[in-house]
């Protein structure tokens, strides 16, 4: 059963450059809880990019996105875009952990970076209540740099 659900994820094509990655259609909402940590783009030769958790302090259901090679050293460019609705993760994240030199910016609009409020660049955050702005359960799109 887990193998069938992983097969649905394996069918996702990652777009090179700044292409928006959408994800599989029709994935059951409970699938993130069935899998220990849902993965996107994990094939041979890839490294983790970032992980979202549905609870604070990096706990609960999670989803990890993978990429080929490290992110660039600066935040002046975009290394990836992800519409979280494709994996039933929009408005769900409460903490985020990045890897491979990546930083993320969270948006509350699906067509990032064109519209919507967004965070500054985040390396790691055990609690997305960032300063005076609460980003828990608010992100619908992620930009990676």
If you had to describe this structure to a student in words, what would you say it looks like?
- The strands form 3 sheets. The chain has a 5-stranded mixed β-sheet with strand order 2-4-3-6-8. Strands 1-5-11-7 form a 4-stranded mixed β-sheet, with no helix packed on it. The chain has a two-stranded antiparallel sheet with strand order 9-10.
- The chain is mainly beta and 145 residues long.
- The longest helix is centred in the N-terminal third of the chain and has 9 residues, at 2-10.
- The model is unreliable at 1-35 (pLDDT under 50).
- It is built from 2 helices and 11 strands.
* Poorly predicted spans: 1-35
| Structural class label | mainly beta
Can you give the mean pLDDT? Answer: 79
Spatial order of the strands forming the largest sheet: 2-4-3-6-8
Report strand %: 25-35%
**Count of strand segments:** 11
Distance between the termini: 35 Å
Q: How helical, in percent, are the residues?
A: under 10%
Principal-axes shape call:
globular
**Nearest-angstrom radius of gyration?**
14 Å
Biggest sheet features:
5 strands, mixed
How many alpha or pi helices? 2
The H/E string reads HEHEEEEEEEEEE
């Amino acid at each position: 059963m887990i193998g069938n659900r992983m097969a649905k994820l394996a069918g996702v094509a990652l777009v090179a450059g700044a292409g928006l990655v959408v994800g599989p259609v029709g994935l059951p909402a409970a699938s993130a809880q069935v899998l220990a940590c849902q993965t996107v783009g994990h094939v041979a030769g890839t490294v983790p990019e970032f992980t979202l958790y549905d609870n604070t302090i990096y706990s609960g259901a999670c989803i990890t996105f993978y990429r080929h090679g490290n992110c660039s050293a600066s935040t002046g460019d975009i290394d990836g875009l992800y519409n979280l609705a494709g994996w039933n993760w929009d408005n769900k994240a409460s903490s985020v952990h990045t890897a491979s030199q990546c930083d993320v910016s969270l948006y509350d609009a699906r067509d990032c970076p064109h519209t919507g409020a967004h965070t500054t660049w985040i390396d790691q955050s055990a609690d997305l209540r960032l300063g005076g702005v609460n980003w828990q359960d608010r992100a619908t799109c992620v930009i990676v740099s």
